[in-house]
Design goal:
GO terms for molecular function: UDP-glucose 4-epimerase activity. Its EC number is 5.1.3.2. The chain has ten helices and 14 strands. With about 325 residues, the protein is an alpha/beta fold. α1 crosses α7, α2 packs parallel to α4 and α4 packs parallel to α5. The radius of gyration is 19 Å and the shape is globular.
Length: about 325
């Protein structure tokens, strides 16, 4: 049994992580400022209200905790918003991460799993993006995450911090039977917005651009189920037991689906039409992002269980269909 501090555990991926670790017998403590998370999502383990931008609150959270490791999910993560509010992204994602790392050092916590993103790569120059792909983010969100990755590498050299960075491609899906799923006050992710459109919960879906150099003109993304992401984080804990230094892995299914394919699959799963309209491209959106996760498979032993788009969307559909009140709130 390990004692794990989950920063951002009231959010989408963090709440699924809490469930996974609790289910495996670990002791979980969630740290969150509830700015975008939801208190109702903290259903496994203890809760500490704290903020990465408040070092005193971090000291109080870590004092006497004797945590074996930290999982860091706290971040601003909206690509478009990062373009218009870059200071907020560098403050939260870079300065906040530094505050957390300094607090960990003060309280002798030497291991961290860091939530990163495919946005660190920018526009791809290969069909499958592996860890050696050039890193040239095209938006402040990706740049802030890449800076945090660099800090972790420097911390490994200077302080002996052990870290695993996991770069998600597109997290999706839910655990409807556990009552947790993806719900944000300001929802920008495609699958939940497609499902909301199918439910008639809001305006017609906007498809941002249909003139990309892809088979049907819409953006192509690699969708990975949130439960598979949780599994990868748990494997990262074991990996750090034997592996010093800073390590990074890409997490995706290795296949891409276009916006139009997601819409068609959601309509089939839900049995409802998905109204949509084409809008101009958004700043900072690459045409295609598809992962190579060969390194994670080889070194972490990670094997995604959710490999088809239909079941991923079906799990999210059940969440949105059966949790209509919560899906209008932040989680």
């Amino acid at each position: 049994m390990k004692k794990i501090l989950i920063c951002g555990g009231a959010g989408y991926i963090g709440s699924h992580m809490s469930h996974w670790l609790h289910d495996q017998g670990h002791r979980v403590t969630v740290l969150d400022n509830l700015s975008t998370g939801h208190r109702g999502a903290v259903r496994w383990g203890d809760f500490i209200h704290a903020d990465l931008l408040d070092p005193a609150s971090l000291d109080r959270a870590l004092a006497g905790g004797h945590f074996d490791a930290v999982m860091h999910f706290c971040a601003r993560s909206l690509v478009g918003e990062s373009v218009t509010q870059p200071y907020a992204y560098y403050l939260n994602n870079v300065a906040g991460t530094l505050n957390l790392l300094e607090a960990m050092r003060r309280h002798d916590v030497g291991r961290i799993v860091f939530s990163s993103t495919a946005a660190v790569f920018g526009n791809p120059v290969a069909d499958l993006i592996d860890e050696e792909h050039p890193k040239a983010p095209i938006n402040p969100y990706g740049a802030s995450k890449l800076m945090a990755e660099r800090i972790l590498a420097d911390a490994a050299h200077a302080y002996g911090l052990r870290s695993v960075t996991l770069r998600y491609f597109n997290a999706a899906g839910a655990l409807p039977d556990q009552g947790i799923g993806e719900a944000h006050l300001c929802e920008t992710h495609l699958i939940p917005n497609v499902l909301k459109a199918a439910l008639g919960d809001g305006p017609a879906l906007k498809v941002f651009g249909d003139d990309y150099p892809t088979p049907d003109g819409t953006c192509v993304r690699d969708y990975v189920h949130v439960q598979d992401l949780a599994q990868a984080h748990a494997l990262a804990l074991d990996f750090m037991e034997a592996s010093a230094g800073a390590h990074a892995f890409n997490l995706g299914n290795g296949q891409g689906f276009s916006v139009r394919e997601v819409i068609a699959t959601a309509a089939e799963v839900s049995g409802k039409p998905v109204p949509f309209e084409v809008a101009p491209r958004r700043d900072g959106d690459p045409a295609s992002l598809v992962a190579s996760s060969a390194k994670a498979r080889a070194q972490l032993g990670w094997v995604p269980r959710w490999t088809e788009l239909g079941p991923i969307i079906e799990s999210a559909w059940r969440w949105h269909r059966d949790q209509p009140d919560w899906s209008r709130q932040g989680a």
